[in-house]
Amino acid sequence: MIKRTLEQVANMSNAELSKPELRLENVHGVSIDTRSIQKGQLFIPLPGPNSDGHQFVRQAYEKGAAAAFWKRDMPNPPEDIPLLIVEDPLQAMQDLAQSYRHQTGVKVVGVTGSNGKTSTKDMIAQILSGTYSVQKTIGNFNSQQGLPLTLLALEEETEIIVLEMGMSAKGQIEKLSNIANPDIAVITNIGESHLQDLGSREGIAEAKFEIIKGLNPDGLFIYDGDEPLLQALVNQQNFLFETLSFGKSDTCNLYPVSIQLKGSGTEFVVQAFPTTTMYLPVLGLHNVKNALAAIAVARFLGISVESIKEQLRHLNLTSMRMETHEGLNGSLIINDAYNASPTSMKAAIELVHSLDQYSNKVLVVGDMLELGPKEEDFHKEIGHYIADKHIQHVLTFGPLARNIADGIKDKNQTIEVKEFIDKQELKMAASSLLDGNTVLLIKASRGMKLEELLEGLTS
Predict the structure, then answer these.
(1) What stretches of 236-341 show up as alpha helix (H) in DSSP?
(2) Which residues are annotated as a binding site for ATP?
(3) Where are the alpha helices (DSSP H) in 146-284?
(4) Structural domains in the chain?
(5) pTM of whole model > 0.85?
(6) Interval 141-170: pLDDT, tens
(7) N or C, which end of the chain is more exposed by having fewer CB within 10 Å?
(8) How far apart, in whole angstroms, are the C-alpha atoms of residue 222 and residue 245?
(9) Residue positions in the annotated binding site?
(10) Cβ 358 vs Cβ 332: under 8 Å
């Protein structure tokens, strides 16, 4: 974590010390939450939905904080507490993080995309950790607040940090890219998340493409070559940095020539290494694509194919992303309940469809959120997609997911479809379908909390 004197922190964050006589006092880390603040940390008061962090500055100091930011136009600054006076605490934290990033000399890998960015981040960090000292974004600390906090938690001896970059509006990825100044930038794909804010997939692609704004001219830009919107944006540019595409198509720089599901994992061969079979301990073509992006990062950083293969075998993804569990009566439960969009929903359904060793395939699907005015149409489209697959049972949860049920009934009367608004009733119905021939998928947006079904469905 950052360890600097108050004078150094002031210079790095464009702040003014309220007590210059304390300029040589040290700060060890930062915090935005008095509930978890540690002795010696810098407290950063940020506005929240119900309160402003400035009202907790004294509490932070009494709990051991070394100092705190204070917004210049905020009245009544406490005179007995060391303060760093700034125009805006969030901007000051971002400036501090950017300065610290450059002082450490760490290499930065930035990852964004509509789907798969967390899994791709985990894969990149796993592969690189066999050769380098690596840190990565923890949880979903990928926002205007989260990314600077991740950088400020960086240990100075760390060689590479893998940063996830999230957004909900145009300009946000550009801001994060300029803070992090990545040496390698990755766009996993373009889906439909944030259509409510960005209006179209073209708008989403342009917003994700902002990741190149802070990219090192000597760096590498890695993108989904199966996505025409990204390819069109790449074709319009004249980059100083290298570019590399990955995907299913043989027009990409990296693509798989074979993919086989093996138990609860996936074997695949990349055209660039035709004699090497890679193994992922997770299921799905979309995870193979994520692995290709991670492999591209690793090869740019000089990591051998054998080391990549070995590290992928030991992959441990962030929870609720294609987690496999032993279900009741010998069934297989796939928990992919962390989030959902039409793109990721189709990928998960395709996976279940392809698991030929199971004769009874059950989908438990809930609402996909933040899809804008066409949200009902997107859900019905998922129903039409399911109708063409080898699926026996579909259980929907939530008001929007009813449109999935309607879409299935439009095109396929043989799939048994049931709709639920009570989670306990849903769990009872799902458990009654489980046996040794059954695979059951749990998939919905994070707000639906469908992972709560696992207790009662797993052994």
Answers:
(1) 285-300, 305-313
(2) 113-119
(3) 146-152, 172-180, 195-198, 201-208, 228-235
(4) 3-87 (3.40.1390.10), 105-313 (3.40.1190.10), 323-454 (3.90.190.20)
(5) no
(6) 899 999 999 999 999 999 999 999 999 889
(7) C
(8) 6
(9) 113-119
(10) yes
